[in-house]
């Protein structure tokens, strides 16, 4: 019989073993359970859902009859203990997987649970995370779970129910910020003020209804700010017509030039509208444009502001015979002219000036 590995040897083997295999071995062999939990656990993905835990590529699910653990290759099922409820089994499973661990480091952590009272997290659970998605949970309730060394986060997605949620230090330190507006009419968030002082490099706002005044306030604050090149703000869930209207209103207020994207200018993966260039300083400029996105409900359009180096793209009027937007006003006639060829334009001009007879109109074959 081969002698058993020493504690240090066992710890060394488990430390460099795949995370999912480590967990499977510790659940099957109680002698390894304490050793395995005393070692740092590094995960690529951790998702907590209702009666479901996903660790990397393995999914643990507690149904009303059984516990199922499955991956792409393996699926195992265990009958639910008769003396325990579904909630009790799920809590026991969560404790077995995550409780009393020395350290948990996760690349991407997602919460789909919205009732922490029904599914409380294990005691003393601390997670070092790079990307955090709180789902519908309040960010304040998850702060005790997040290791302080996680800050600044690479990405933070959360719901904002009032302006207090946006003053949390973790929110300001995140590199990329995804915000879902859950504020009510009573606790409405003043986005014109909030977006002016948020220092994040990339901000994405969803389900928010910004007034024209708030949009202009955001643009003005960004033009006056000292944000670095590459900083961006995206307002999601727009309609294409709304994007164009907002860009026109911004140009009336702040001026700027309209730009046409060239194929070699990879400023955005998908453009739905021309770009509006607003100079900030001699070295940078603020560019507004629309992006197109395909979702479950069809195509949606987003309005995006992004800071680029000065002279990143060529203004529209410099290489196009007609300007898409008239300076200071909407020119529908200039839009129509873009769809006509030069001979037709010459015909219209001649007709208006009296050089073309009415016979030409009645008989299209007559040359002019």
From TrEMBL:
Highest rank taxon of the organism: Eukaryota
InterPro entries assigned to the protein according to its UniProt record, in alphabetical order: DUF3557
Spans traversing the lipid bilayer: 339-358
Family annotation (Pfam families): DUF3557
UniProt keyword annotations, A-Z: Membrane, Transmembrane, Transmembrane helix
Name under which the protein is recorded: F-box domain-containing protein
Lineage, uppermost ranks: Eukaryota, Metazoa, Ecdysozoa, Nematoda, Chromadorea
């Amino acid at each position: 019989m081969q002698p058993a590995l020493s504690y240090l040897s066992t710890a060394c083997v488990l430390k460099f073993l795949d995370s999912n295999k480590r967990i499977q071995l510790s659940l099957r062999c109680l002698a390894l359970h304490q050793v395995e939990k005393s070692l740092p656990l590094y995960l690529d993905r951790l998702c907590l859902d209702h009666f479901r835990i996903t660790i990397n590529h393995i999914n643990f699910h507690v149904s009303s009859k059984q516990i199922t653990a499955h991956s792409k290759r393996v699926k195992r099922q265990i009958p639910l203990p008769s003396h325990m409820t579904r909630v009790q089994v799920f809590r026991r499973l969560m404790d077995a997987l995550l409780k009393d661990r020395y350290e948990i480091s996760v690349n991407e952590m997602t919460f789909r649970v919205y009732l922490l009272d029904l599914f409380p997290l294990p005691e003393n659970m601390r997670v070092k995370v790079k990307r955090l998605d709180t789902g519908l949970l309040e960010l304040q309730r998850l702060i005790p779970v997040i290791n302080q060394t996680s800050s600044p986060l690479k990405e933070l997605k959360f719901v904002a129910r009032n302006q207090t949620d946006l003053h949390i230090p973790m929110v300001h330190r995140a590199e990329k910020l995804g915000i879902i507006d859950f504020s009510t009419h009573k606790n409405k968030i003043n986005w014109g003020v909030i977006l002016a002082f948020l220092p994040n490099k990339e901000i994405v706002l969803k389900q928010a209804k910004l007034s024209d005044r708030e949009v202009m306030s955001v643009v003005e604050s960004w033009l006056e700010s000292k944000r670095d090149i590459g900083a961006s703000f995206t307002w999601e869930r727009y309609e294409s017509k709304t994007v164009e209207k907002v860009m026109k209103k911004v140009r009336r207020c702040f001026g700027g030039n309209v730009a046409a994207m060239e194929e070699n200018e990879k400023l955005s993966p998908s453009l739905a509208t021309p770009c509006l260039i607003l100079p900030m300083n001699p070295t940078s400029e603020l560019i507004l444009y629309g992006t197109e996105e395909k979702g479950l409900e069809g195509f949606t359009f987003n309005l995006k502001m992004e800071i680029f180096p000065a002279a990143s793209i060529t203004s529209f009027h410099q290489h196009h015979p007609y300007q898409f937007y008239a300076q200071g006003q909407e020119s529908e006639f200039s839009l129509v002219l873009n769809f006509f060829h030069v001979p037709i334009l010459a015909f219209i001009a001649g007709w208006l000036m009296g050089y073309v007879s009415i016979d030409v109109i009645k008989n299209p074959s007559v040359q002019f």
